[in-house]
Amino acid sequence: MALVLTEEQAMIRDAADGFFRDAAPPAAFRKLRDAKDATGFDRDLWRQMAEQGFAGVLVPEAHGGAGLGFVAAGLIQEAVGRNLTLSPLLSTAILAASALVAGGTEEQRAQYLPQIASGERLFALAADEQARHAPHAIATTAEASGNGFKLNGCKTFVLDGHVADTLIVAARTDDGITLFLVDAKAPGVATERTIMVDQRNAAEVTLTDVQVDGADVLGGVGGGAALLDRILDAGRACLAAELLGVSQQSFDTTIDYLKQREQFGQKIGSFQALQHRAAHLFCEVELARSATLRALQALDAGEDRAPMFVSLAKAKAGDVAKLASNEGVQMHGGIGMTDDYDIGFYMKRARAAGETFGDAGFHGDRLARLMGY
Amino acid sequence: MALVLTEEQAMIRDAADGFFRDAAPPAAFRKLRDAKDATGFDRDLWRQMAEQGFAGVLVPEAHGGAGLGFVAAGLIQEAVGRNLTLSPLLSTAILAASALVAGGTEEQRAQYLPQIASGERLFALAADEQARHAPHAIATTAEASGNGFKLNGCKTFVLDGHVADTLIVAARTDDGITLFLVDAKAPGVATERTIMVDQRNAAEVTLTDVQVDGADVLGGVGGGAALLDRILDAGRACLAAELLGVSQQSFDTTIDYLKQREQFGQKIGSFQALQHRAAHLFCEVELARSATLRALQALDAGEDRAPMFVSLAKAKAGDVAKLASNEGVQMHGGIGMTDDYDIGFYMKRARAAGETFGDAGFHGDRLARLMGY
Amino acid sequence: MSDTLDAFRIETRAWLEANCPAEMRTPVARDSDVCWGGRNAKLSGPQRAWLDAMGAKGWTVPEWPAAYGGGGLSKDEAKVLASEMRRLGARSPLSSFGIWMLGPALLKYGSEAQKLEHLPKIARGEIRWCQGYSEPGAGSDLASLRTSAVLDGDEYVVNGQKVWTSYADKADWIFCLVRTHPDAPKHLGISFLLFDMASPGVTTSPIRLISGASPFCQTFFDDVRVPAANLMGEAGKGWDIAKYLLTHEREMIGAMDFSAGGRDSVSQIAARTIGLDGEVLGDPILRTDIVRHEIDAWAFGLTMERVKDQAKAGQGVGALSSMLKYYGTELNKQRQELLMSVGGSDSLQWEGDDGDQSRSWLRSRANSIEGGTSEINLNIIAKRVLQLPGA
Amino acid sequence: MSDTLDAFRIETRAWLEANCPAEMRTPVARDSDVCWGGRNAKLSGPQRAWLDAMGAKGWTVPEWPAAYGGGGLSKDEAKVLASEMRRLGARSPLSSFGIWMLGPALLKYGSEAQKLEHLPKIARGEIRWCQGYSEPGAGSDLASLRTSAVLDGDEYVVNGQKVWTSYADKADWIFCLVRTHPDAPKHLGISFLLFDMASPGVTTSPIRLISGASPFCQTFFDDVRVPAANLMGEAGKGWDIAKYLLTHEREMIGAMDFSAGGRDSVSQIAARTIGLDGEVLGDPILRTDIVRHEIDAWAFGLTMERVKDQAKAGQGVGALSSMLKYYGTELNKQRQELLMSVGGSDSLQWEGDDGDQSRSWLRSRANSIEGGTSEINLNIIAKRVLQLPGA
Asked: Where in this chain does the record put each Acyl-CoA dehydrogenase/oxidase N-terminal domain (chains A, B) (predicted)?
């Protein structure tokens, strides 16, 4: 497959760029932050995103979605990254949709996928239990009980857990890990919202004797580990795309600033030391772009090597976003440290998205293991 | 202890600087290289070094040495590093002298230490058996035989093994590792010289049923591992000092070149990108200097933490010498790649000395383990 | 000599035991535990007692001359005092830009009248000072500042704007760089002026940083009238004083950020947080990054020690403040990046005490900007230390 | 169309089967396996047969027009030829700076007479070319070159010195940058001259590199007389041709150094040499460095692919040759540093075959210097791609 966008994909990119620039630019992010509302994002924006087909980007057309695939999803996430847009896109449209598409029964797909595409139901993935990503380290238990299971355990870093209607919970059953669809309002589910450094919302979710039905098993009993990896890889690739957007916007903003700001009677962009750092950063952003596109294509094609490409992309895009935003703040000097400028927001988002579902170290280690060393 | 040279040490530094600059500068190194002689260094220079007290720098005055200690030895090695001087200083005056001082019996010390100080006997440490430094991975065996032992095994990277009169061999005995003093001309000892990238000489030494006497055990049967660590730490700290000399000379040469060479109608030293890299390198060389001095002082004081300081110094000085010489070649441009200029010699020596007795990765790992992580 | 010192030690120990309140012998835990003094200081009873006792002896500034409110101690006596305070766990009675920055400059460049007026009040914590250096258009290129001071009779009339004035909203007086000679070459038109922040025409507004609140302000001067006698040093020679102070500041920031006393190393925190896998840290890639950082941090710490020891031994150390500032602050940023990685999602929290780590990380990003950027310090090393040619 | 291509493929396959000697179907193992052509070429029988057969069809340069000795193939046909040659494992019949560098420039800037004279001989490997660009005082600042060419009747008289002329001692002709207009601004006084290395007054001497022997020479011109008709393009406009060629060269070096076909990755070599400890490489710190390198190397490989794919799709890719040159050569240096670490003391050996690794490492250090230093390429990215202002 050629490493270029198809015409359809180029159109999606242009549409997403235009939409987020107009409807959810950094100024909207700032406004939401200052308002400190309980939702943490704009439900009206989410409705518009559903109308645009973004919420259903991974939902097959048969279930009311746009069925555009991962490259398209990545292009939308990249625009989100450039604009710092707050929305349940990742947790619902990427993670939950790919979970249901890959592991859902016919009934589950028919029930939930249209609700994802229409934007009416929000999901959250309750997998991590440790502060450092270790997806198979699951202590939450699911014991057989009645015609279903009883869940007990504590989940951390549950993105959008505070607003989710349905949780996807990973728990340990006799024969491995199993995923469950859990009503967030079910008895025994306690959710505590946490606001993160990047204004995203994560939650601590405590499950105490939560009763679920056998029909709520997602992907078969004991089949959760492989399914979880697929869901996480979908999320990681799209996070790589978002990190790419963060990098590109940090870079562009910084280059603009280098062309405007004067010190010592010269534009600071004329100083060779900054020029060389900017030129190096340009190369790094291009590398992150190539790796990310390849990972998204690999997911679309269902390649066996997709996990390798995903780890490559997440590691590289994460490191580059950190470098781009750090260099951005440093080259902005003092004003880069002020809340009045946006560049600091990109640094915060780079750090948080870089951490989410495994940082560059995690994915470097995973990649090496997948490659046999 | 203050991190400064004592007056005596400052005098030794000045004497060593003067001696090597006059008697064994880089031009002498080049001449020896081009002559391709079988010894690989200048025996007359070695005699002069003995007269100066350099060969006996670690030999106590009671045994005819100067008894100056490790800081002094490091200052001599630093001058060696600056001048690329070829000599058996490391293998004989540092490794063998510290082995005998730390582990020799009264008889062994009385026999060999004066011969080291006078320069008349050359030694080589035959410890490593793998291409990557792993000092306790010893497969060479010493089986009880007669009133002594019979040695069998293969040693690699034996510095100055081709000219040594006496080998210090590490071998495995029933109760651990034991060191032996072995006559290099004893039956069963086969030595093959190898010329390295930096023109130093290493040898492959094969031991086939080599018979040694019980009196040739150094440091007690089974006491070799701890003694070997002490000997190696002495060598590592002095190699750090040599690497510091390599760094400093690479740096100074490069700064001079930046002040002379013109391109685009300007001195290239006026280009800010090169200035910043040079300024960063300046800091790195200063850090290497501090770490090296501290390690040598720790050895002199016999501190428990000496191994940590030694690994710190070897890791830092090795990395800095690599950086300094690589930056040196790059900033010299094309001529830096030619054999006519000396800067390439420093790059070669930085690589080889950095590798010897553990590279920065080895010592980083060792340091982390010593610190408990 | 040693006998005299011993006597001084015994005496000092007794005095500290008698005068340092118990509450002042506990570690500083929160911002309000730090005593900055000043006209509007809100001090607890013990803070006030401790400051007054130490101020009266001049031991807030042990080595300043007694005539200016100092303790008049020798270097060795001052060391004894410091060690005895450490022994007791006594807090510093006074944190003050007056002590750290203005004082040394006043001692070197001030008139006798200025020294007598200002130094004792600094020593006793009566007046809190702030520093008026940077301007919106003059950051790294500080000398391009435009705040003007025009002589009108025996007063200067000051107009302009400063940024990054730490605690300007809490300070009583400001030491301020102003342009008195608009037509002179830019470094020669600058003067060093002292004035009361309560003067009509001075207003301040706080700057919000990415890490949340901040001590920094913007400060505006609108026809502020300052007696000409408040000029420090000669008119047009303020740049020399500024450079002197900046060098001082750089050493302080480099050293402070790096070695905030007795804190745990990254590896200790990581071993606690992540745990070991056998004998080594449970994350092999992060372990590599941590050990590289600690090698540099340790070698840097030894370098600070060596610089000090060489200075004591009377050996020239060159213009090393820029090296300490550059390398120390870069290391501190790296430390914070590593601590963020060690903490994982826990360290992404933002609100309340849980957000301490993320705020420390964000705060650290300013280290390589404030008090001379890393780039400026590399320029200085290249030009002053290495003597590389100008462009 | 596809039918025609299929027919071409069948025909080509048959021809190659018939004409490619068995000896030319084995991988290139040593320097002498590479055929450079030229008047003094020492070719084996099969090399000669293969070169002559391919040269006669113009398939050494498949896409050049047949009138100039080329194959006259379309892009798609050329791809078919390449894939059929790969299928057979056929070696390249001819390595040549004439094909890679001078040819494209001749096609773009040469006169009809020059094309007819030189291109067929390049295609058939009859004449071997070298490049006369750098001078001792003109490295990165190539345009400051001083080799002079003064018109004397209908001849130029050339005087001066070139360095880094690859294989000058083996080449038949040189394409050479000379200064024809000493008083013009430096970029405008340069011309592009072609001449025979056998001309009286041309001497060469090899340059010894730190890695041992080298293909590079110094070349001296002492009153060398060159027909004025050998000027390529307009007098004084040689700089445009030089820039065109340099861009070409940069892409080639960046790509070649990086992806020398099918070689093992560092991790494969490391796993073989060091071995695994459980599932992971036996050296945790080196493993970290290797995985970081491979992430970059892989992402860079994908970027080269993307640049090519975008070019095929007709999407502008910007002036990316500098990026490929800069990043590709830095990666290759890093690869060699890592391989040295993997090999430990074995890789420090110097003599004979045992010294291959250390010589490859030393050779790689030139990658970021030759054909435009990393610094020059960063300058170009900053200025041409990012449009940052000049100093």
From this structure: 6-120
